[in-house]
Amino acid sequence: MASHRKSKRPKPSGALSNKVLSWFAGQTATFGMLTLIGALSFAVIVARRYSGFLIDIGSVDQGTYPSVIATSDPTVTSCPAEAPIMAPSPAPGRGLYILIDRSISYKQDTQWALDTIKHVLGETLSADDRLTASWIGQDSADPNNTFCCEQPVPQIEAPSLPPIPVRPVLEQTLSPNHEASSVEEAQRELNNKFIVARNKEKTQKYNCDMKKRNEDASWKLQSWHSDELSAINAFWQSAEPKFSITRFESFTNIREAIYRAATVLNGDDKRQVRYLILFSDMNETYARGFSGVHPYLSNVTVIVVLRCAQATKCEELKSHWTEEFAQMNAKEIIYIQETYPEEKLIDLLARR
Length: 352
Description:
Blueprint: H1 14-58, H2 65-71, E1 95-101, H3 107-124, E2 130-136, E3 146-152, H4 182-239, H5 254-266, E4 274-280, E5 300-306, H6 311-327, E6 332-336, H7 342-349
Parallel strand pairs: 1-2, 1-4, 4-5, 5-6
Antiparallel strand pairs: 2-3
């Protein structure tokens, strides 16, 4: 019986093995060379692309970049945006005419009226107010009854302030181009970063210039305001002693006093805010009949600080004088009957 043997694949000879290895080595070298050539070609293409890119970056003015980096340093104090401080427009002063009753019927309240109005004027006098004060007596039309002051409170001209810095013109960032390559898009984004940084630096410098300018302007305005207050105080220190009573009179001619006040207030075209303030019991007695025409109180607010003993009498007087003032075309008629009218008077005179 024939025996069966397993067939064996013949082993390659040494020559064949060397051929295979040589072929494989050659293929590997060829592939490596092609890879190197491809890499170098790609590097050349990229270099050409980036040569233009570097030129574009150069056009972004890289000289400002270090300062941009410095500005974004968190250790550097930033200046918040603020509006420029402007010089105030001086408001025209008010026309103030004070009438104080010195008749016998009001004798017990005359000093109270003087003390009240002195307190109110000390709190409310402003630059350019024109203050006049007269007595209500038997000859109220007599110019000698005017005891103060017939002149305006001094007004100091507002200072000229430092010029306002010019707001910088900011650059617009570049819009995306959907047809651009990825490299060009990367270039656009980097350029925009430079633009944003430069805009931030310009804005920061503008804000800091404005802050410095406002500090100088604020100091000038504070100094001016202090000087103006000093002028007002000096005026009032000179005027206040004149508010004192030396004698009383037997009769009360209220209409003549109002007529004289209306003449002064209406003759001052500069001051459109006008007040006529009367301290009186409004109980008129005549030394002689009033012969003048009705006073004209257009654009004048009339404030009557009324003192009378009986409530019924007060209402009758208010009704009578409301009708009288209406015929004089008074802008507004206000009665004050409080024991301490200072606060209300101060609030009313604060209106402009």
